[in-house]
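Support request from a user on the community tier.

User writes: "When I paste my structure tokens into the form, the page sometimes reloads and wipes my input. The last time it worked, I copied everything first. Here is what I submitted, just in case something in the input itself triggers the reload:"
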């Protein structure tokens, strides 16, 4: 009994004295981890915090009565300097296509009992976890104890070997079978070209409804975790469906995938797909951060309606447009944005449809096309009376029940009224249009202070 007591006391002593020999010298200095040096997100501009008068300061010509003026304050954030382009969204599509192909190949290799050591076969694309000798203790534990939907969710894909898309170089018939399954059937092929079956390009992710969880007085954490799975390929048919009795087939055929339109804003993306893109962009960045041993960045997301309007104003108090106003023509007689001027002369502003995302002059926050070109999704739900009840600090009328989402900025097919920074409009979240795109934001968490060695918020 005495030995047991002494052992217990020794254990308590070890627990209370273990670790480094206290560099804090007994002072309360906090838990110190790795130093964090924030970096400016690529392709984004810092929008400084501030207050502004949100809503219609000028005459409400449309008499919609849905934007009474109100002074609100928003925190600092980063915003994309342009709308998300076709090229940028294609990176998302290519990543999903790559993942779908690798998953199919790995599952078949698993079923055939092949491993990465089986050179020259589909086995080279087997799950990375197929070779358990290279797994850490934690990875083995997850593999043995994971309970997933399809049984493969805990398996890591092997991304060390490139996919082969040239049919002449396929390693074996199993590989050919999988790659063939990614394309439309022969019956759906014309002009001798087989197209990718874009319905297979689905992105699956989870997110947590933090606001609902915070307001709930009961329920488990898992009750507020939402699972999403959706097709992420843009709806190219919008170019035809949006306009009856109009010849827009060339835009349907070429706009998204052709290099000629790489730097043009992506359209045909609904609100849910835009949200999925934001999740993927966060994951894509943090996967790289993890591989380099760096701290994760906070999430990319859609801007709130208030953030969008504040950024669009560019610091100009009471401006009608991002450049101030009140006119849409410059001193030199040039139009300031891409829209439908002069009672329907689409080409009067030197553009018939969209233009490149970095066109016209940016506003004072260095943001391009905050008016015209394409309308932009926001994270806010549309309610005509929202300004009456939302908070004056970081206002946002977000509601999962309200499927109408605010779009801002006007587009290439709109008249000047919709280009005004205070004009509100909406579209249903599952609708895609040829005139709606989006840009993302990221919360500002400080910058490195080279003079003091700390971060200022």
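"...and here is what came back when it finally went through:"
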């Amino acid at each position: 009994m005495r030995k047991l007591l002494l052992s217990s006391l020794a254990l308590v002593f070890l627990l209370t004295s273990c670790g480094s020999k206290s560099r804090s010298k007994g002072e309360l200095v906090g838990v110190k981890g790795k130093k964090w040096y924030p970096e400016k997100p690529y392709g984004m501009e810092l929008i400084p915090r501030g207050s502004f008068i949100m809503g219609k300061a000028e005459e409400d010509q449309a008499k919609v009565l849905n934007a009474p003026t109100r002074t609100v304050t928003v925190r600092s954030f980063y915003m994309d300097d342009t709308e998300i382009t076709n090229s940028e969204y294609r990176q998302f599509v290519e990543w999903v296509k790559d993942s779908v192909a690798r998953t199919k190949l790995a599952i078949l290799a698993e079923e055939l009992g092949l491993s990465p050591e089986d050179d020259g076969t589909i086995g080279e694309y087997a799950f990375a976890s197929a070779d358990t000798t290279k797994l850490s203790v934690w990875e083995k534990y997850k593999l043995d104890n994971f309970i997933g939907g399809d049984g493969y969710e805990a398996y890591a894909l092997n991304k060390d070997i490139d996919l082969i898309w040239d049919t002449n170089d396929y390693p074996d018939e199993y590989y050919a079978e999988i790659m063939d399954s990614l394309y439309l059937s022969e019956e759906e092929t014309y002009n001798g070209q087989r197209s990718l079956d874009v319905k297979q390009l689905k992105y699956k992710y989870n997110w947590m409804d933090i606001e609902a969880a915070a307001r709930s007085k009961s329920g488990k954490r898992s009750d507020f975790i939402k699972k999403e799975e959706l097709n992420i390929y843009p709806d190219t048919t919008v170019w035809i469906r949006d306009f009856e009795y109009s010849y827009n087939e060339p835009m349907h055929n070429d706009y998204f995938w052709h290099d000629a339109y790489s730097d043009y804003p992506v359209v045909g993306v609904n609100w849910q797909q835009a949200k999925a893109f934001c999740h993927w962009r966060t994951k894509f960045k943090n996967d790289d951060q993890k591989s380099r041993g760096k701290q994760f960045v906070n999430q990319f997301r859609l801007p709130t309606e208030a953030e969008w309007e504040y950024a669009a104003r560019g610091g100009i108090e009471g401006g009608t447009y991002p450049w101030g106003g009140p006119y849409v023509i410059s001193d030199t007689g040039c139009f300031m944005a891409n829209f439908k001027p002069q009672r329907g002369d689409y080409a009067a502003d030197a553009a018939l449809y969209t233009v490149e995302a970095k066109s016209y002059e940016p506003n004072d926050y260095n943001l391009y096309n905050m008016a015209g070109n394409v309308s932009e999704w926001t994270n806010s739900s549309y309610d005509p009376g929202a300004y009456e009840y939302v908070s004056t600090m970081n206002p946002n009328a977000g509601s999962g029940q309200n499927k109408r989402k605010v779009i801002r900025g006007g587009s290439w097919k709109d008249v000047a009224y919709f280009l005004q920074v205070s004009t509100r409009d909406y579209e249903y979240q599952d609708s895609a249009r040829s005139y709606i795109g989006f840009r993302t934001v990221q919360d500002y968490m400080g910058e490195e202070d080279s003079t003091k060695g700390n971060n200022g918020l």
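Agent notes: The reload is a front-end session timeout and is unrelated to the input. The first strand starts at residue 44 and ends at 47. Residues 1-21, 449-457 have pLDDT under 50 and may be disordered. Escalated to web team.
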